[in-house]
Amino acid sequence: MPVARYERLGVVNVHFLPCNQVAVTAGLMMPGTPKYPYYFPQKMQEPATCPES
C-alpha cells in the first residue's frame, strides 16, 4: 500500500474508499489541515461499476 510522504512519526490515517480502495497517510498531518494530501467527502457512494484494477 503506498503511503503519502511524511517527515516525522505521528499519526496514521486510513481512508476506506469505494471500490475496495484504501488511502493511507502517516505523520503529523490531520485531515482538514492545509498540507493534508487527501480530501475525501465523509460519505461516498459506491459507483454502479468500479474501474478495473
Give an overview of the whole structure.
- With 53 residues, the protein is mainly beta.
- It has a domain at 1-30.
- The chain is built from no helices and two strands.
- It has strands at residues 11-17, 21-27.
- Strands 1-2 form a two-stranded antiparallel ribbon.
Which properties best describe this structure?
53 residues, mainly beta, 0% helix
Helix and strand composition category: mainly beta
Shape: elongated
Find the count of extended strands (DSSP E, 2+ residues).
Answer: 2
What is the rounded distance between the termini? 14 Å
Computed over alpha carbons, the radius of gyration is: 13 Å
Q: How are the secondary structure elements laid out?
A:
Layout: E1 11-17, E2 21-27
Antiparallel strand pairs: 1-2
Gist?
The chain has strands spanning 11-17, 21-27. The chain has 53 residues and is an all-beta fold. The chain has a domain at 1-30.
